[in-house]
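Researcher: Please generate the 3D structure of the following complex. Treat every line as part of one assembly.
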Amino acid sequence: MRMPRFLSRSAAMIDDRTGLITATQGAMYHRVPRNAKWWYVFGSATLMFFIIQLVTGVLLTTLYVPSAAEAYSSLVYIDEKVPGGWMLRALHGWSSNAMCVMMLIHMTQVFLHGTYKYPRELTWVAGTLLCLTTLALAFTGQVMRWDSNAYWGLGIGAAIVDRAPFIGNWLRAIVLGGPDISGATLSRFFALHVFILPGAAIALIGLHLMLVLKNGISEMPKPGAPVEPETYREEYHARIKKTGVPFFPDAARRDMVFCGAMLIVLIGIAAWFGPFGPGPVPDPTIIEVSPKPDTLFLWIFAVLALLPPNTETFLLLAGPPVIIGFLAALPFISPTGERAPSRRPLSVVILVAIVTALGVLTVLGEYEPWSPRMRAWTSDTTPVEYVKHRSPLELQGALQLQYAQCRNCHSIGGIGGKRGPALDAVATRLSWDQLVRQIQQGGGNMPAYGKNLSSAEVEALVAFLSTLDDQAQPALIPGAMEAQPARDESPTVADASAAP
Amino acid sequence: MSDHEAQTPATEGDAANPCENCEANGGKGRRGFLFAAGTTLLTVGGGLAAVPIVTVAIDPGEAPNPNRWISLGKASNFKPDQTVFVKFIMPWSSPTDGETNQNACYVRCVEPGKFQVFAINCAHLGCPVEWFAQSRLFMCPCHGGVYYEDGSRASGPPPRGLFEYEWRITDGNLEVFAGRLPGLQEGP
Amino acid sequence: MRLGLICLLGTTVLVGGCNDLPGKPPPNPAPVIPANTSAGFEAIYAERCAGCHGNNGVLGAARPMRDADYLQSIPRETLFAVTRNGVPGTRMPQMGGDAVDPIPDDVLHKFIEGMVDTWGVLKPGEPRPSRGIAWKHVPGSGDASRGAAIFEAKCVYCHPAQMKASAAYDLDRPGTVTDPLVVGSVVDPFYLRLVSDQHLRSSVVYGRADLGMPGAAGPFRSPDGKEVAEPLDAEAVADLVAYMISFRDEWPTRAEKKDGAP
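Model: Done. Output below.
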């Protein structure tokens, strides 16, 4: 089918004056390696999700009110009153996650295949900056939700910034836009989320794509074919000229299939799971919250819980620059040599270690075993088998276990906090006297209860704990009177509690 | 790609030396004066424009000292040996603050006329600690920091005890010196 | 053509049927279930009470609340006051008032209403373990020496002061007893310091059906484990409570600070 004459003439005129069509065609038909197959679709998918973010994001700004007083109600309004509004929020939220996932897979592939080596070093650097921008967009997007997680997430961010020596306080004021988290804070993050960061992302994507076009798409790595800067370009162009295929339509087919499939999956997920939040209102006087970041940042949440306190500030402040610096410097650390993963065992080991660490930390962050369960003491029942055949004193001990909030950190019967050890078999590990000492003096991350418990309370508690022997003994041992040897002669418990 | 490269040699000659007749400082005489004047005007103008830009960018809300004395009610309302949760309104607020213009603290009455006022923010990373009157402990829901009733650190990651607000009693009212989100570094 | 139709259909379903998709967020704020309904009261109970009083109101470490006789006997104002303010000196915490995250008074009133209406319904003709004996402990009432005799006759089999003195003590397996009814002492001074006088009286009057302890109506056990059908009367209840209370400060003799006992 031939183009009508007037159309082709107009096209020629536009191209003559702007050069746009030639440039586009140059990009579309540039030759890419024949073996650039399914491994290469993730960059395109990242771009597609970014475009979805732009479209849904712009629409959301027509509905969202970036005022701390009204943001929350405008979100509820979008969810409940605007036709298709919740779907728009769901698409924006899930597409953000999808973009990050695709970006991380893309980065992993580039790292694994050594694509960052000569001459594509700066493409990688631009990619690293894009990665940071994307993560920043994801974090600031979480703030846009303006619920209690957003509020306390900002509090955590402020507390980290505050730890910087000398400039911490000043830096914190810049981040929060004032002495505390307030309307100014939301406005700042709104400006970041809808103007500054997307602008940076668009500019960096342009740079990234320009560099991809300039240096060409890399071939699949071949073991025994190291990158040598003296000859690489020449050889690459020769090979591409001989065996390469035009990007459109040859390579683009796979991109189109993958992106299309991902788009439909995204819509399905958004329709099924709906939008993220908003959670409880961002009222700092409502403290019955358990602040937790989105899945993407759970690993940071886990790191913050697990860092040793004495090196925490140093690691918090020095860690990010070192990690980012290492990422950006990677192509300059090893700019040449083998690209095939089979010839780069160290890189593979590093990659596996990073992926494993992030995976484990994310899972830990999801279960947050270090967090006390604030409502466990009133909601987590004493298992029935620990209530039956217990003496009155032991039952008072079971009550004391709830009353003193022990359950917030310790589980019995599988329910309760996970911060301390489960107590189902505590009597097999600790003797009566050891239990008394542990309760009164604490230690091993347990607060000392000594000054807060009377001797009767300690006695009852220990009497109950002494029956928790993992059901090893028949329950017909009413422990309280017999478990404590010679209690009548030596009131050791009373002595210990009298001591400070 | 190849088209693009074919074009580059032609443009490169220009790009390498875009202004063959140019000299340093924009030339001599009238041309040199205009160049110098332009540079100066732009610098001065830019500097002036930067004043409001940088001021707002650095900090739109911070007053020289954000803390003010805030009344928490009659001091006699607080019973000895009790720790209670008290809400207050932050002294610096803008019309768009919504719920965030509020804050809260824990008031511990050690004995009549003697108080400890704790920030709700954990000294680790600022999450809200909850007071448990039964075990006489503060616990943090984020990373498991625990504090004793006098605010000292009991266990977990916090590097220090709870932040305390200054307090005083004026006309029988308990007042705290607050306004700034407490942090590891002291006020501005 | 067919593909186009499918696409059109899909779009229509997506746009038109958005409200029927599973991802549609639930109303925000979530509708509050009134606390005086069965569901509303049970939700609060599960969060605030189940830890000690047991799932569904039975078999917890503390007194069961699914006890129609008990709920019918105790005035609602008393249930309200105890829940709101706690019982100082015992393990019953304050749930309202100036506690952190309190249950507001109006909700708490409805909660008590919901609990009594759901769990406090006595079936017609159902025997009452309390025999209608007054719930309230009167300080100073009862005679401890008479209580001692009643205790010896009716209580000591299940509640021996020393396990070794129990008739059910298993000589073959030292430390164990042969009868699951035998649970241990109620005259242990430490136990008595942790509970209120009212707790003792309530335990005697209403028993703990979920753990096999009879109320005032019996039946009880003689010291050798035989059933004793004769119930307790109001005077005997007061005597028993007075007897138990007399052990509270007996041992150790050391004066203690900050003890739990009232």
